[in-house]
Amino acid sequence: MSLSNSEIADLFNQMADLLQIKGENPFKVRAYRNAARTVQNLGKSLEDLHKKGMDLTKLPGIGADLSDAIEEILQTGKFSKLEKLKKELPQGLDKLLAIEGLGPKRIRQLYDAFGITSLEALAQKAESGEIYTLKGFGPKLVEKILKGVQLAKKAGHRFRFDVAKPFAEELKSYLSGFEGVMKVEVAGSYRRKKETVGDLDILVVAKNWESVTEWFVKYEKIKEVVSKGPTRSTVILRNDLQVDLRSVAGESYGSALHYFTGSKAHNIKIRKMAVERGWKINEYGVFDGKKRLGGESEEQLYSLMGMEYIEPELREDRGEVEAAVEHRLPDLVRLGDIKGDLHTHSKWSDGHATIEQMALAAKERGYSYLAVTDHSRHLTVAKGLDEKRIRKQWEEIDALNERLEGITVLKGIECDILEDGSMDLPDSVLKKLDVVLGAVHYKFNLSKKEQTRRVVKAMQNRYFNIFAHPTGRIIGHRNAYELDMSEIFAACKGEGVILEINAQPERLDLDDIYAKAAKEEGIRLAVSTDAHDTMSLDFMQYGLNQARRGWLQKSDLVNTLPLSALKKVLKK
DNA sequence: GCCGTTTTCGGCCCGACTGTTTTCAGTCG
Fold first, then answer.
1. Is the CB of A142 under 7 A from strand B?
2. Are residues A188 and A113 in the same domain?
3. Spacing of A92 CA from B13 C1' in Å
4. N or C: which end of chain A has fewer CB within 10 A?
């Protein structure tokens, strides 16, 4: 039985949901959630670790019981404790947990009184008014529940980072332009640069909070003002993105920013450390009893805790706290470190700009090289290049390189990996290229074994340089195809293959977790935009967000190298 | 259910808000 880390994490989360509804010890619930997070963030297949005989209790939040549970799940594909609980409790209750305003207690109440186990039944009892007979259910709560049911029926309410970004930027400048506003920052997962964000949390330091609130709720893209209070206001934008505005005193700005930036797991870890010293950290500051030790800035907060400043992208409790204490945090890669883009398209295939336009746009961005990597022949819908056309393209590139100054165009290809693992163009062509990307563009539904064998075989081609958009997922639309990532990593190491972080905001794969794992294996990566026009070269920043979340430094990426060094890496 | 140079048992981050109640439970971030 083969289960991925995500599937195992999912079982633990289901367990936590049901335990919660059952009214079990909340710390037990938390233990399952913590374990789920550990598994999800592992970056290495739990199955592999187990096969190699690793003691799973060494993993944070996994003790004897959960280690046994993992073993059972890996061997049988089943988690008996969960199965048992599922029999005890009716199906469907966990769906109700997703509704805002409904927690375990109220769900239990609804079930005991009316036997409610579904969104439909819930809506019906709410609309008929019967629900008011329950203690604690008043008109406001019922209205909230009905709204929640509507929302729960719509799928997926997280927003891609690039979708949220213009709203975040616009709101920030809208607010900072208002009189009396001293500081504005968008915190939350947006500040941590997660690939998707649930809502926007905006912090404001202002002399005149009340008039700032009034100004905020007048922002033109607001659909609904949910609440307006003395320290917090919540609105929903027309695209259903929720925005919270919170007022903070200047002296608490750092601790508030830290608190609202999260992640929750990171915060808990820091607060625990404070408790161990007999201190307390909350959103107002750092305290020793009643004595205030600080809180004006995040730098000060971390310094009080005896550690280095931790960049928001790292705050996921994936080892950054320990690293900060031991002064071994990575010096994260920055846009200024990037010397070129290794995955771009031109009009020769499905791009919208000429090679020259792309090259000049790359030069404008301060790059010294740009690889043109149009599609290969198999991808006919994208006018993929065959041998004849690619040779013609080389003539154009040679001529351009004669003419252009300050930028070098590299000859590349985004070559299809065919179903049998062979490359879409012959070696006689591949060997003349500066950069060969390999990519999977069809037959996404092969079994894990077949898909892995296909890619590994392609990587064994001696001209294969970079594995492009390695997992093929499209955020919110398409899952990753099945690949055994530890085998892929092993092949990369063996064959000197570079892994791409594709900077298209709906791709962003490798993701942060695998990027970190690849780095730890000593595999090199490239952040590339896959740009199909000149403007999309600016997607680089999205890719770098993901790279930074994956702990990558300048030295982990190949497209931070000067051209001569890069060429050496690419010639295997 | 996890975890431990204060503990193998007794803790487990911390506070605000909402709606309901009449002093606070439940939920949320």
1. yes
2. no
3. 31
4. N
